[in-house]
């Protein structure tokens, strides 16, 4: 298939390209009028426009911080309101992941980065750039999400190894009053995961927080899909849901067993929530937020690049703040995005049930009452391989999907549940709604051909590579 940026469809098929790989928001659902109004409102008032065009505060625009905190409080309904001091404005989830690693890790002292697999594959290079290319570890999922027993066992082994090596102090990071160095990092997408489509159970979230506290780990969660949720029923009574189904891991850390700032704790907590406007307002805004304890949030704001240039995305942050101040973005998400993406999801699931399930294809967590996000994870019947299916689907039917191997954690794929050769991921967000069912029908045609071929496992199709400018399709 080549690099994702090179995906242009089949060279031989006369059928229209259907791209079920591209994980972008639908162009038809970008809130251009809303942003146009907000932009004019900001720029026509000098008292707002001048600060917006200057270096921003380290922690980000104060109005956006307050509005984000208010929206999160209403949506997640924690025991206590979320304060703006828990919020730091970022350049998006990926940029903030890099900042968290800069402030809170040391490439020697931090033993490992534990990544729930299958994983968001463009995170791998962020970890590698921070010096962890030899320390990435894969953690399998089960029906409830992260395999906590596997993680416990492997973290203990990692600690024994660190003890034997006398790895007791950070090697490259100075001691700072506003930061700390964690022994471990755990990375996951706990709600409507990209790519596995799963939602981690509340029990697992609590177990994960307790484990992180025991071994001094920072859990970094990409909570970027949480607002995009709807009933799983294919004949729902309502098309949108305005409250979260369960607390985030950062909420669990805030309150569980005395909370993140309990007596004897250092106050930084063990969880950081990555939020982003990319999926709900537009990735070109390059604006998001991080939530954690007040100490952790402040530490993020003190990343060197923020201290030098002020908060990233200062101008667009002010535009987004205006959309939240008027309540228009909140209404857009609940009244427009949730119903629209929910309809796309139902169209695709109906096609999967009709075309793929009878062929032996499986999808995870079919008993959930609430679903969401952008993606559906498909397990193919043996001996079909995702790489072969992806190549043939492109060549023969001009439909593009993502093969499972690209979501494997580099260098750690030997254990069961860490390799995904018989999986593919499909996206229902990018293509027009009418094309989704046809895309699944075409995929089913290829699967039938593969199942009917005597030499189904001997295809010469080559796996796609995850290298290249993959951002163009993720």
Would you give an account of this structure?
It comes from Cucurbitaria berberidis CBS 394.84. Keywords: Transferase. Pfam families: Aminotran_1_2. Residues 453-474 are annotated as: Disordered. This protein is of the alpha/beta class and 474 residues long. It has 2 domains: 4-30 and 330-473, Aspartate Aminotransferase, domain 1 (Alpha-Beta Complex); 40-329, Type I PLP-dependent aspartate aminotransferase-like (Major domain) (Aspartate Aminotransferase, domain 2), CATH 3.40.640. It contains 14 helices and 16 strands. The strands form 5 sheets. A 7-stranded mixed sheet has the order 2-11-10-8-7-3-4, with helices on both faces. Strands 13-16-15 form a 3-stranded antiparallel sheet. Helix 7 links the parallel strand 7 and strand 8 (217-222). The longest helix has 29 residues, at 328-356. The protein is globular, with a radius of gyration of 22 Å.
Structural class: alpha/beta
Integer average pLDDT: 94
Give me the side-by-side strand order of the main sheet: 2-11-10-8-7-3-4
Q: Please give the largest β-sheet.
A: 7 strands, mixed
Classified by CATH, the class of the largest domain is Alpha Beta
Dominant shape = globular
Number of strands: 16
Under CATH, the topology of the largest domain can be stated as Aspartate Aminotransferase, domain 2
Q: How much beta, percentage-wise?
A: 5-15%
Number of domains: 2
The CATH architecture designation of the largest domain is 3-Layer(aba) Sandwich
| Helix and strand sequence | EHHHEHEHEEEHEHEEHEEHHHHEEHEEEH
Look at the structure and name the CATH superfamily of the largest domain.
Type I PLP-dependent aspartate aminotransferase-like (Major domain)
Alpha carbon gyration radius:
22 Å
Keywords: Transferase
Protein name: PLP-dependent transferase
Biased composition (Polar residues): 453-463
Organism: Cucurbitaria berberidis CBS 394.84
């Amino acid at each position: 298939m080549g690099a994702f940026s090179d995906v242009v469809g089949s060279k031989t098929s006369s059928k229209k390209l259907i791209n079920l790989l591209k994980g972008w928001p639908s162009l038809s659902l970008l809130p251009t009028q809303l942003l146009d109004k907000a932009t004019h409102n900001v720029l026509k008032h000098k008292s707002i426009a001048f600060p917006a065009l200057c270096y921003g505060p380290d922690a980000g625009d104060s109005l956006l911080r307050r509005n984000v905190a208010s929206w999160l409080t209403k949506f997640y309904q924690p025991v206590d309101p979320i304060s703006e001091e828990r919020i730091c404005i970022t350049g998006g989830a990926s940029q903030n992941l890099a900042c968290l690693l800069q402030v809170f890790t040391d490439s020697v002292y931090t033993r490992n980065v534990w990544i729930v697999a299958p994983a968001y594959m463009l995170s791998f290079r962020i970890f590698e750039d921070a010096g962890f290319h030899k320390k990435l570890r894969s953690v399998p999922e089960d029906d409830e999400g992260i395999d906590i027993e596997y993680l416990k066992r492997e973290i203990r082994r990692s600690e024994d190894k660190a003890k034997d090596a006398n790895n007791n102090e950070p090697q490259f990071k100075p001691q700072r009053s506003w930061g700390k160095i964690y022994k471990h990092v755990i990375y996951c997408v706990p709600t409507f995961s990209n790519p596995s489509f799963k939602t981690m159970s509340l029990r697992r979230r609590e177990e994960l927080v307790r484990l992180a506290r025991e071994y001094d780990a920072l859990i970094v969660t990409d909570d970027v899909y949480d607002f995009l949720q709807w009933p799983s029923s294919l004949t729902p009574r309502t098309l949108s849901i305005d409250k979260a189904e369960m607390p985030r891991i950062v909420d669990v850390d805030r309150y569980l067993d005395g909370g993140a700032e309990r007596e004897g704790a250092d106050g930084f907590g063990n969880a950081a929530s990555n939020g982003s406007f990319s999926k709900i307002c537009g990735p070109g805004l390059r604006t998001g937020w991080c939530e954690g304890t007040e100490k952790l949030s402040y530490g993020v704001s003190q990343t060197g690049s923020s201290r030098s240039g002020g908060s990233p995305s200062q101008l667009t942050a002010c535009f987004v703040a205006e959309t939240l101040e008027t309540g228009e973005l909140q209404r857009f998400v609940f009244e427009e995005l949730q119903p629209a993406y929910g309809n796309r999801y139902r169209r695709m699931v109906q096609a999967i049930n009709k075309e793929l399930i009878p062929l032996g294809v499986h999808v995870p967590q079919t008993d959930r009452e609430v679903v969401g996000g952008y993606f559906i994870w498909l397990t193919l019947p043996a001996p079909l391989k995702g790489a072969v299916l992806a190549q043939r689907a492109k060549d023969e039917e001009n439909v593009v999907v993502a093969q499972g191997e690209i979501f494997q954690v580099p260098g750690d794929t030997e254990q069961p549940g860490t390799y995904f050769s018989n999986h593919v991921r499909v996206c229902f967000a990018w293509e027009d709604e009418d094309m989704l069912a046809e895309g699944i029908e075409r995929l089913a045609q290829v699967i039938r051909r593969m199942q009917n071929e005597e030499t189904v496992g001997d295809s010469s199709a080559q796996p796609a590579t995850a290298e290249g400018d993959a951002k163009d399709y993720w």
